[in-house]
Amino acid sequence: MIAVAKPAGAEGGLQGIKTIEELNIHAKRVFIRLDLNVPMKKGEITDDTRIRGALPTIQYALKEKAKIILASHLGRPKGDTPEDRAKYSLAPVGQRLSELLNLDVLLFEDPNGEGIKGMVSGLSEKQILLLENTRFAPGEEKNSMEMATHLASFTEVYIDDAFGAIHRAHATVSALPSLIKERGIGFLIQKEVTWLDKLLNVKEKPFLTLLGGAKVSDKIGVIENLMEKVDSFVIGGAMAYTFLAAQGISVGKSLVEKDKIHLAQDLLKRFKNRDKKLILPVDHIVATEFKANTPTQATPTAAIPDGMMALDIGPKTTNLIEEEISKAKIIFWNGPMGAFEIPPFEKGTFKVATALANSKATTVVGGGDSVTAVESAGVASKISHISTGGGASLEYLEGRSLPGLEVLRQNDFRVDLKMPEPSENDIQ
Ligand code: 3PG
């Protein structure tokens, strides 16, 4: 079992939140909210990291002989149409869970109907109930109290282990736990928050943060909140071209957020005033179009010729970043260095992933694309911590209060719903 200490004196963090081990879940009806939102291609799961990440909590609940009710969203269905049901069903996830746990996982299609109560109380020790995609119910994203009240009617203990969804004020993340007195977190959230708190309360120096991806606006909150703690920043990916444009360097036809140039100029001043090291690309891999296996060239300087677009960092930039990585003691990486999903523009991102894996530093990688990059580069096992939450890890590092954590921290709860045991007649 993973034993994770609560960070002493950390602001926010896990203070005031009970862990699954601090609650009595023995033989209770335990509702476990997970993030089983895994990538799928043609109905097949392409990466089961999030499913594996949920196993320690499920296994603990099994050991405690709990009646286990699992819930998760998958994708972003627009509603509850037959097409959405086919595309976003949790059936393949249930199948995978069943293989990994070697027991029956029963997918329940209508968790918002009354039949669920009998189903829950009739669960045997070798069965787990998986509720169908929470987002099929219109109440989920509206944080509906009506939906939550129904789910609370058969829940004795609520456990949140859906780190990737902790920033969503949705019914199964926020409204439901507000109704349940016995509530807390599972092992995955414990582990994730403890790692991210390590970055926010950093002791090791130098602390290097690498940010990439398309948009400056997505990363501004993290830059601001980490500014004082980080010793050097690397900015790559398309967001770097907005910073180059902000310095008056020509960017050709590269992706630039024109309305964020002033913001980039302001950030450049802030880095300078605080004496923070900032590495921006000094050369690029450019092409005339964004197409697989299109002819490319490396630019001699940071300037991008007219008619060309930059799609990856160049070799000089890669060397600079590798050198910076070799000096760091702790590193956070979010966002690819180029359009790594299309060859030949994956090289810079893969080299950064490999340098991270080979460094002696503590390394934390968060965000869907950079996680895919470390997986595709085959170095995932050498990273200290890979976060299962993209948006969630960024919002946590921005210092924002996250609905799914805040509700668990509150000492009061809204209603003490003392539900009667479902009667024998309810049992199907
Ligand atoms: C994620 O993949 O980041 C989480 O599962 C949250 O999904 P969402 O962005 O659709 O809410």
Keywords:
428 residues; alpha/beta; Rossmann fold; 2 domains; six-stranded parallel sheet; 36% helix; elongated; disordered N terminus; disordered C terminus; binds 3-phosphoglyceric acid
Q: Can you lay out the helices and strands and say which pair or pack?
A:
Elements: E1 29-33, E2 40-41, E3 44-45, H1 49-63, E4 67-71, H2 82-87, H3 91-101, E5 104-108, H4 116-121, E6 127-131, H5 138-141, H6 145-152, E7 157-160, H7 171-179, E8 182-185, H8 187-200, E9 207-211, H9 216-226, E10 232-235, H10 239-246, H11 261-273, E11 277-279, E12 284-287, E13 297-298, E14 309-313, H12 315-327, E15 330-334, H13 347-358, E16 362-365, H14 368-376, E17 385-386, H15 391-397, H16 403-409
Parallel strand pairs: 1-4, 1-7, 4-6, 5-6, 7-8, 9-10, 9-15, 10-11, 15-16, 16-17
Antiparallel strand pairs: 2-3, 12-13, 12-14
Helix pairs in contact: 1-3, 6-7, 7-16, 10-11, 12-13, 13-14
3-phosphoglyceric acid (3PG) is lined by residues 35, 37, 76, 164-165, 168, 390-391.
If you had to describe this structure to a student in words, what would you say it looks like?
β9, α9 and β10 form a beta-alpha-beta unit. Helix content is 36%, strand content 15%. A 6-stranded parallel β-sheet has the order 5-6-4-1-7-8, with helices on both faces. The chain has a 6-stranded parallel β-sheet with strand order 11-10-9-15-16-17, sandwiched between helices. A 3-stranded antiparallel β-sheet has the order 13-12-14. α1 crosses α3, α7 runs parallel beside α16 and α13 crosses α14. It is built from 16 helices and 17 strands. The chain folds into 2 domains: 185 residues, Rossmann fold (3-Layer(aba) Sandwich), CATH 3.40.50.1260; 203 residues, Phosphoglycerate kinase, N-terminal domain (Rossmann fold), CATH 3.40.50.1260. The N terminus and C terminus are likely disordered. The protein is of the alpha/beta class and 428 residues long. Bound molecules: 3-phosphoglyceric acid. 3-phosphoglyceric acid binds next to loops.
